[in-house]
């Protein structure tokens, strides 16, 4: 008799109670990490302008990675974690 084992671990996702609402961004600083893909700067510039104008975001910090496959430098991650209530990283193209 052959036994077949499933090697994948079960996953547990704790309930997320602390979701941030857009209205909570008023007076806060948000961050963006550019992953060096084309057009991401244009998207970020427009989104940042909208968040400031419509939702009262107080500040925007933009940082860049060397490439999409590279992690953000630890100094950048630490800075954004310290100063921002929300960080958006994304892709362009």
The main β sheet shows up as: 3 strands, parallel
Query: Numbering strands along the chain, what is their spatial order in the largest sheet?
Result: 2-1-3
State the end-to-end distance.
52 Å
Count up the helices: 2
Could you give the topology of this structure?
Elements: E1 29-34, H1 40-55, E2 59-64, H2 74-83, E3 86-90
Parallel strand pairs: 1-2, 1-3
Describe the structure.
- With 93 residues, this protein is of the alpha/beta class.
- It has one domain (24-90).
- It has helices at residues 40-55, 74-83; strands at 29-34, 59-64, 86-90.
- A three-stranded parallel β-sheet has the order 2-1-3, with helices on both faces.
- The chain starts with 28 loop residues before the first strand and ends with a strand.
- The mean pLDDT is 86.
Structural descriptors:
93 residues, alpha/beta, 3-stranded parallel β-sheet, extended
Summary of the model, kept short:
This protein has 93 residues and is of the alpha/beta class. 28% of the residues lie in helices and 18% in strands.
